[in-house]
Specification:
By secondary structure, the protein is of the alpha+beta class. The protein folds into 2 domains: 41 residues, Winged helix-like DNA-binding domain superfamily/Winged helix DNA-binding domain (Arc Repressor Mutant, subunit A); 82 residues, Alpha-Beta Plaits (2-Layer Sandwich), CATH 3.30.70. The chain is built from 5 helices and 4 strands. Strands 2-3-1-4 form a 4-stranded antiparallel beta sheet. A hairpin with a 6-residue loop joins strand 2 and strand 3. The longest helix has 13 residues. The chain is elongated, with a radius of gyration of 20 Å. The mean pLDDT is 94.
Amino acid sequence: MNSTLDAHDLRIVDRLRTDGRASMQTLCDLTGLSRSAVFNRVRRLESEGVIRNYGARIDRRLLGLEIHAFCNVQLKQHDSRYLKEFEARIGDFTEVRACFHIAGGFDYLLEVQVKNMDAYHRFISERLAAMDNIGQVQSSFVMSEVLERA
């Protein structure tokens, strides 16, 4: 975390994390600062990369995405060339909502959302397993969402 963030910055970030559409007036009320001071702080937080982007949280089921899964992926080879190749290619898969390089028994954790189990099977067998350096894939399926934070 940036050591130059003060309590006002942290309040702004926390509010925007839970409500990216919070108005300047709401942020002013929250911090007790003027509109121009809040505006300047938000712009600074954006330019410093503390606030990377704004987005909408969606109901995946309303988009027909019934399967929500996490895939642990182990590569066969681990030198930087293979890691970079995997990371470059995984971004092309629209089924993958997030990808994390992790420590432990696997190399990557993928968050995957697809229409149904047939689509998931096609993703695993025809797309992911078709990559040359995939050693092992282990899937876990979300039964219910207990807590999700932005």
